[in-house]
UniProtKB/TrEMBL annotation:
PROSITE patterns: GLUTAREDOXIN_2, THIOREDOXIN_1
Gene Ontology BP terms: cell redox homeostasis
CDD domains given in the database record: NrdH
UniProt name for this protein: Glutaredoxin-like protein
Stretches assigned to the Glutaredoxin domain: 2-57
InterPro entries per UniProt: GlrX_actino, Glutaredoxin, Grx-like_ET, Thioredoxin-like_sf, Thioredoxin_CS
GO MF annotations in UniProt: electron transfer activity
Species in which this protein is naturally found: Streptomyces pactum
PANTHER family tied to this protein: GLUTAREDOXIN, GLUTAREDOXIN-LIKE PROTEIN NRDH
Length: 79
């Protein structure tokens, strides 16, 4: 499972979600501006910064502003 932490105004977030859709990679989207716990999760993954998109995988690993290729590679290793 992939969770994409994003905001409504983030162009990088929109691009990543379109790439994930194109590659048929299922994900859950969480808006950090409407979910304080999500904002804390992102800050924890990014040294106290609210950087989006932040992707967190079911194994607990996180990537900040990754490309879809990195996500596919990670999913292939953990499948």
């Amino acid at each position: 499972m992939v969770t994409v932490y994003s905001t409504t105004w983030c162009g990088y977030c929109d691009r990543l979600k379109k790439q994930l859709d194109r590659e048929n990679i299922a994900y859950t989207e969480v808006d950090i501006e409407t979910d304080p716990e999500a904002a804390q999760t992102v800050m924890k993954a990014n040294g106290g910064n609210q950087v989006v998109p932040t992707v967190i995988f079911s194994d607990g690993t996180a990537m900040t502003n990754p490309g879809v290729l990195r996500i596919k590679q990670h999913l292939a290793k953990t499948a």
